[in-house]
Prior knowledge:
The chain is of the alpha/beta class. 48% of the residues lie in helices and 14% in strands. It has helices spanning 13-24, 31-40, 44-53, 61-71, 90-102, 117-126, 165-179, 181-189, 201-212, and strands at 2-6, 28-30, 81-84, 109-114, 127-129, 136-138, 192-196. The two termini are 12 Å apart. BIS(adenosine)-5'-pentaphosphate is lined by residues 7, 9-15, 31-32, 35, 52-53, 56-59, 64, 85-86, 88, 92, 123, 126-127, 136-138, 141-142, 162, 171, 200-201, 204.
Amino acid sequence: MKIIMLGAPGAGKGTQAKQIAGKYNIPHISTGDIFRANIKNNTELGQKAKTYMDQGLLVPDELTCDLVVDRIQQDDCVNGFVLDGFPRTIPQAEALENALAKLNESMDFAIDVDVPDENIVNRMSGRRACLKCGATYHIVSIPPKKEGVCDNCGSELVIRDDDKPETVQKRLNVYHEQTQPLIDFYSKKGILKSVDGTQPMDKVFEDIVNILGA
Ligand code: AP5
Ligand code: MG
Ligand code: ZN
């Protein structure tokens, strides 16, 4: 099963993608997580990506497409994968389509997690992230057992550099300009499904499972 998660920054793509990956036993591929891991390890890619990410801008397609095209051809992707945060532009969607076409394959589902802008800024200011294992919390809706500490691995939880309110607003603008057109793109391909992302996390997941099948 090959799935794309669409949705604004903070809509809950990552939260849902992790659960999908667990239930259907397919890898969760988040370009944001890959860039953040590269920043943490101070790689050349990480240094380049950081200058864009900190401003709330998209990392250029040249740095992003090949990375994903390579990743989805690794052995653990034979039964499918869930893409979180990719594609984010029409050229990225076309690059993905072309890469899969060469393998005689295509995407099965594009799931749009729909959350209005008003709800987003609130969510982001409460988000806490573990940079070690990728777990995400919210200080009100999904708090860790011990404040500031990851339940999974015991590492310190941090506020992401791009979760400052002014950067969140910039990311929302970029989303509406560059990423939202993908909703129309996948609707025309006949694989778009929408879920109401303002519902509690478990209800959102239930709706997704109803779409994907048990
Ligand atoms: P990325 O890491 O992908 O960030 P994003 O798209 O902005 O989305 P987020 O990760 O912020 O939100 P999410 O939808 O995953 O929500 P989450 O589940 O955490 O990208 C970061 C940057 O990297 C980009 O700005 C760009 O610079 C670069 N980049 C990445 N991919 C790229 C690409 N393909 N091309 C170019 N550049 C790229 O949830 C948010 C919060 O809400 C959490 O605290 C969570 O606990 C809480 N929450 C989740 N669901 C619910 C719910 N139902 N109810 C209440 N709270 C909830
Ligand atoms: Mg995410
Ligand atoms: Zn952790």
